[in-house]
Amino acid sequence: MNKKIQTIIKTKQELTQIKVDKDGIAEDDLTLEILMSGLDQKQMVNFWRTEEEKREVMEIEERGDVYVKGKTENRVYEQSGLKSVFPEAKVDHYVFNPCGYSSNALLGEHYYSVHVTPEDICSYASFECNFPLSNVKNPYNSYNEIISKVLNIFNPKQFVITLFTRKPEGTLGQIRDLIPQSIKGYQKMDKIIYDLNKWDLAFCQFTKNDIILERIKKSEDENSIETKMNRLAIETENMALYI
Asked: Which residues contact 35 (CB under 8 A, 6 or more apart)?
């Protein structure tokens, strides 16, 4: 029994030595954010209350009762696909009326949060977590996997990734290896890496390929119209010289 306790203590000390530097800060300390806009409206239906759920809220308010979270929140959590991101998380969430969603979840000593505004005119969603890849309970092998999982839920037209990470002692940091170099279906528009002494901050902006092609076509059409207008103006001016 004593040998088993000593083994547990030794293992815990080894983990502490690996994870914490001389300042007492975890070397795998990080924060990943995904900020998305132009969300897929077919998938945003999941973040609206059903007509029955809307009536239920109205009746509760009319009675002066307090709304109790539960059934609707769990439906949204499961139907939207958010539950599949970190299935073991302990989540506290809320569905607004008539739409919108907010959640905060715990993964042991780590967390993740999601906030969604699904309306087409201003659709936006944010995802934030500080669950390091080095944690044995993290089911993902790379940040690309986490990012792709979240993107599949919202299918945004454009999004921004920020990764704020502790720089390991005696190194220049590994943030260039952590951030995605490419994401299928998207074009990377910007990538900036900031060196903040013991910390690194990476900023990446992506836009869907379809949106870029639409912009190119629109620009070409506008240039074509402008060329035609200029040509017409010149022809009109030339005709005026002969009158």
From this structure: 124, 126, 159, 160, 161, 162
